[in-house]
Amino acid sequence: MSKKISNETIQTLQSLRSIRVFDTEKHISEEDMQTILDTSVRAATASHRQSYTIIHIDDQDTIRQVFGNNADRALLYCADTS
Question: What's the pTM?
Fold first, then answer.
């Protein structure tokens, strides 16, 4: 018998999903991008190492080469063990 948890944080974490199809016509404002970055650096990491680098890409040619789409911005999260 499992107890239903009503904790808002747990509900939020359990509702997370990865999105693999992007709307390439949608523009992300500077304010929204800053909110995404501010939130990203506060996300939990394995063993609280926080050993990653976030690369913000806004060059459309680079985005097309790396991700294969026409988005106007991209964030690339890289494991950083050094």
Answer: 0.61
DSSP secondary structure of the chain: -PPPP--HHHHHHHT--------TTPPPPHHHHHHHHHHHTTS--GGG---EEEEEE--HHHHHHHHSS--S-EEEEEE---
Range of the domain at 70: 49-82
Task: Divide the 82 residues of the chain into consecutive groups of 10 and give the mean pLDDT of each group.
Answer: 66 72 76 90 72 87 86 83 69
* Assigned domain for 27 exists: no
Q: Is residue 53 part of a domain?
A: yes
Give how many domains the chain has, as a whole number.
Answer: 1
